[in-house]
Design goal:
Largest sheet: 5 strands, parallel
Oligomer: single chain
CATH topology of the largest domain: Rossmann fold
Number of strands: 8
Region (Disordered): 14-34
Organism: Micromonospora zhanjiangensis
CATH architecture of the largest domain: 3-Layer(aba) Sandwich
Protein name: Tetratricopeptide repeat protein
Strand content: 5-15%
CATH class of the largest domain: Alpha Beta
Length: 695
């Protein structure tokens, strides 16, 4: 802390006024030479100042994010506004030592404002009163850096209506809101500003010569100014060291914090450690545990599952989460959804390795993985209740997995948690929890059915096969091989699709599952149809339908009739397709609550068949209804199929403009999904208007 106290010469007599002179304090440190553009935050401060003559602004954010630099930058731009000077104090809230006593700061401020040392009261309450008296009519700027609490700050607020106080803290300090404070969140720098900061510290030419590695380095540092400055200092110390080499050195997460903590006076690890040490034991334990989460972000329901085992009340968990948020060790992305800054996650994992026993850490991770399985299974049961599943025994009862009132809610959760479900499956397999890994692959089926994503589907199904084999469950292997075969066919790897399909038939036969054998044989029939072997496909479908009629599962009969009916239409025999499709429609009409997806698929098949017979009105009616239902189900790919059919119907009628509009809409969806149907739609667009229409 820098304090300028008035120097008094000669004899002085006090006659009730405690202030002998009024020196102009100029305590504000110089602006940071590495300050990067903070346009939005600076504009927010300017706006708040314009609203009122006096202001208390709290700049809050994680350690090392650049709050102090921002405060100094803005303050220096406003010096001419404060004719009575500036006061500055480092409150040492998170310095590794005890936060600075407000009484010490008040004494220094009073001396800087011209109060003789022997006139400063000993008791804090009297100091506060004198401070308010001295500042009552002054135009002052007060910068309070690294505040620990609202109470620490409140005693240092001047009484003037023309004073401005800027506070920086790793906590939100919402306790200052009754004092009129405005909160300004300071987050990591966006990529361009982060690269700009590197250029200022290292030299623009050096950064411009390695633009791509510089962007990677900014990403590794997570836009955190202190990390960027440390990295820049290492580069500056070694002029021959390339940015690309530095990126390679920091790629290892296990060494990243250490490599960013070696410059004198600057340490990412120490910066985070001060915030961590200020936590309560409950909050520090949750900070460590949540960092073991396999994905990038997580919801409150996951937190309840992790923390609920040790707490009987949700209010307690909310209190602990509030502490982590207040300390800016977690970020709330949207309501009840959270994430770590990348470097904070590494720090929290280090603390977990240091403070938590290995078996406790593994148990916590398994709780998270089983949470995702439990929640996804509930969603699966709502969306696809007709599927066959294997049981699973959880390590203990879970708190937190959501219940879903309807299909839309279940699909919404699956879509929102897509990346976490993927990461959970990877983590389970890597930990050797093969049964759990298979279950996490299996339970992702509704997500893959409705939202596609063929690369994800291949990864999930391939991992499911490997997990089943490691687990030693032949039925599980057969089921996942069947799925994997279909996924390979969808992306055009027909050789692998046939290999997996035949392996699925073999495994189902090993375990004596008649329905499984028929299911896998139908997958092969679909493969034959996809690869131009229409007659072989038709013969296989006919055998499959005959076999299905001997089993009690009427839904499977409907699916096979639908598949054969679509094949008949595609091979120019729509009249033969219609009876099959009508039968499928009758079956799924009885199952509309259980399987609305395939009921809508039947409408697509009927629309195509009616188009083939020339009944354009009925074809259009079916396609419109199919598009409506698929939209309700959020099945974008199948809705695009119905829209594509509407385009073909319009083309048959000679309405090229309507056809073009439908084709473009379908093409946009297929492109977004990387769907194999895209080339066919683009071909038809070209027929209507060449490359311009495609664009």
């Amino acid at each position: 802390m820098s304090v300028q106290a008035g120097v008094i010469h000669g004899g002085v007599h006090f006659t009730g006024n405690p202030v002998d002179r009024s020196p102009i304090p100029r305590q504000l440190p110089a602006p940071s030479p590495n300050f990067a553009n903070r346009t939005s935050e600076l504009s927010a401060l300017d706006g708040y100042l314009a609203e009122r003559g006096n202001l208390v602004a709290v700049l809050f954010g994680p350690g090392g994010v650049g709050k102090s630099a921002l405060a100094r930058q803005w303050a220096h731009g406003k010096l001419d506004r404060f004719v009575d000077g500036q006061l500055y104090a480092d409150l040492r809230g998170f310095s590794g030592t005890e936060p600075l006593d407000p009484g010490v700061v008040l004494s220094a401020f009073l001396r800087a404002l011209g109060v003789a040392p022997d006139r400063i009261p000993l008791h804090l309450a009297e100091q506060v009163t004198l401070y308010r008296t001295v500042t009552a009519n002054r135009s002052l700027l007060v910068v309070l850096d690294d505040a620990y609490s609202a109470a620490q700050v409140r005693t240092l607020l001047p009484a003037s209506t023309s004073a401005v106080v800027v506070v920086t803290s790793r906590r939100r300090l919402t306790g200052l809101l009754p004092d009129g404070a405005r909160l300004v969140e300071v987050g990591p720098l966006p990529a361009p500003e982060a690269v700009e900061l590197l250029g200022r510290a290292v030299g623009r030419e050096r950064i411009l010569n390695e633009c791509a590695p510089a962007e990677e380095l900014a990403g590794i540092c997570g836009g955190l100014p202190i990390a960027l400055v440390v990295a820049a200092a290492r580069l500056a110390a070694r002029p021959k060291l390339t940015v690309r080499r530095m990126v390679a050195e920091l790629a290892d997460e296990a060494q990243r914090l250490s490599r960013l903590s070696v410059v004198d006076g600057l340490s990412i690890r120490a910066t985070f450690q001060f915030s961590y040490q200020a936590l309560t034991p409950e909050a520090s334990a949750l900070y460590r545990t949540l960092a073991l989460h396999p994905g990038a972000e997580f919801g409150m329901d996951l937190i309840a599952a992790v923390a609920g085992a040790g707490r009987a009340d949700g209010a307690g968990v909310s209190t602990v989460m509030g502490e982590l948020l207040d300390a800016n060790l977690l970020e709330e992305v949207v309501e009840d959804r959270f994430r770590y800054h990348d470097l904070l996650r590494l720090h929290a994992r280090e603390m977990s390795e240091q403070d938590d026993p290995p078996d406790g850490r593994q148990a916590a991770v398994r709780t998270m993985l089983e949470f995702y399985l439990a929640a996804a299974r509930r969603a699966d049961l709502v969306v696809t209740p007709y599927r066959r599943r294997l049981p699973y025994v959880y390590q203990h009862a879970l708190a937190g997995p959501p219940e879903f009132s309807d299909r839309a809610a279940a699909l919404g959760w699956l879509d929102r948690e897509r990346s976490n479900l993927l990461e959970a499956g990877r983590a389970a397999f890597d930990l050797g929890l093969h049964e759990l890994a298979w279950q996490l692959s299996d339970v992702a089926w509704p997500l893959l059915l409705y939202f596609k994503g063929y690369n994800d589907r291949l990864e999930i199904d391939e991992r499911g096969v490997r997990a089943a084999r490691a687990w030693g469950n032949v039925w599980a292997e057969a089921d996942m091989l069947k799925r994997l075969g279909r996924a390979c066919s969808r992306v055009g790897d027909h050789e692998a699709a046939e290999r997996h399909g035949r392996a699925a038939v073999d495994r189902y036969r090993q375990v004596g599952d008649v329905q499984g054998v028929i299911d896998a044989e139908e997958g092969l029939a679909t493969l034959y149809a996809d690869t131009g072997r229409e007659e072989q496909a038709a013969e296989a479908y006919i055998r499959v339908i005959a076999g299905r009629r001997t089993l009690p599962n009427v839904r499977s009969v409907g699916l096979s009739c639908l598949n054969l009916g679509m094949l008949r239409t595609r091979t120019g025999r729509p009249a033969e397709a219609l009876p099959l499709l009508v039968e499928a429609g009758q079956i799924f009409a009885e199952l509309s609550e259980v399987d609305p997806y395939n009921a809508a698929r039947v409408l697509i098949g009927l629309a195509d068949a009616y188009l083939g017979t020339g009944d354009l009105d009925t074809a259009e009616e079916s396609a419109i209804e199919a598009a409506r239902r698929m939209a309700e189900l959020r099945a974008a790919g199948e809705r695009a199929e119905a829209v594509f059919l509407l385009g073909r119907i319009a083309r048959r009628r000679g309405d090229d403009e309507t056809a073009r509009r439908h084709y473009r809409e379908a093409a946009a969806v297929f492109a977004a999904l990387a769907a194999p149907r895209l080339p066919e739609v683009l071909r038809r667009l070209d027929e209507l208007g060449g490359d311009a229409a495609r664009r």
